[in-house]
Amino acid sequence: MPNLPPITRRLLYLWAGLWVISFLTDLTSGQGDGLSGWLSLYPKGILSGDLGSFPGILGYALIHNPSGILHLAMNALVFYWFAPEAERLFPGKAFLRLLLASTLAGTAFSLLLTLTGAEQFQYQSVAGGSGLVMTMVALTAAMYPDRRVSLFVIQPRLLSCFVVLVVLDLLGLIASLAGREGVVANHVHLAGALVGWLWVDGFGRIGWNLPPPLRNWKQKQQQRKSASKQSKAQAEHEELDRILEKISQHGMPSLTKQERAFLEKRSRDRRP
């Protein structure tokens, strides 16, 4: 996967590797008792304080059903289509924060549904990266709503495809709340979609204003980010002045490895 950005490529490799390990460990220890059981999300266990359930808070997004490869294959394929562009828009730590926010949103929604007391959510376990996939689809649909998707003989707008997926997940969630058992964690899909959509202000992009609480929160986040960038730029400027003053007084040989590395980084950053 030479053309994929680094985090997307590593996550796809991680998904595949963990699926193989979970497949083998489930064969030797029994279904659900191997790696997949350890990393799956068990909301009831977390709420009851079972420490063995805590790895699933984040781990569920890394593991897929080891009894079949279709779950992994579908998630990996759609992630392969949409995640690279999202990572290029939000590279490095920003993309990791997006993945973390999506994962935690799925966990939070699962815990919330368990707290409602609905029987069908009391012993539910969640595994799979579908929430991350929906985050990538939502983000891309918000950024490029008019982009066309080739589906055999039709080419619908990406935003329309995203809306259909959300509606289907909403219907699935409603059916679950009504007592119908299912194998798809629709609520995790919806949580991931909401994170991706809000991450790029999807409502604002299609002409809808955010509710005041969300709008105020987003403005504060943007202000914090701007202040952090200004503070970092000021600190780097002061450090550059100090190093240049040191060079003028004592020459280049007086610089430490850290100071030389700082100058090299500044030089790289200023290249067109």
Could you characterize what this model shows?
This protein has 272 residues and is mainly α. The protein folds into two domains: 6-209, Up-down Bundle (Rhomboid-like fold); 215-270, no CATH class. Helix content is 68%, strand content 0%. The protein is built from twelve helices and no strands. The chain has helices spanning 6-29, 35-39, 43-47, 56-59, 70-89, 93-115, 130-143, 158-177, 186-199, 202-205, 212-250, 257-270. Helix 1 packs antiparallel against helix 5 (70-89), helix 6 crosses helix 9 and helix 8 (158-177) runs antiparallel to helix 9. The longest helix is centred in the last third of the chain and has 39 residues, at 212-250. It starts with 5 loop residues before the first helix and ends with a helix. 30% of the residues are buried.
Descriptive keywords:
272 residues, mainly alpha, Rhomboid-like fold, 2 domains, 12 helices, 68% helix
How do you describe this structure in short?
With 272 residues, the chain is mainly alpha-helical. The protein has two domains: 6-209, Rhomboid-like (Rhomboid-like fold); 215-270, no CATH class. 68% of the residues lie in helices and 0% in strands.
CATH topology of the largest domain: Rhomboid-like fold
Low-pLDDT sequence parts: none
Q: In the CATH classification, which architecture of the largest domain applies?
A: Up-down Bundle
CATH class label of the largest domain: Mainly Alpha
How large is the share of residues in beta strands?
under 5%
SSE pattern, N- to C-terminal:
HHHHHHHHHHHH
Cα-to-Cα separation, first versus last residue: 28 Å
The radius of gyration over CA amounts to: 23 Å
Structural class: mainly alpha
Number of helices, where a helix is a run of at least 4 consecutive DSSP H or I residues: 12
Question: How many domains?
Answer: 2
> Which quaternary structure do these chains form?
single chain
Percent helix, as a range, is 55-70%
Q: How many individual β-strands?
A: 0
Q: What is the overall pLDDT average?
A: 88
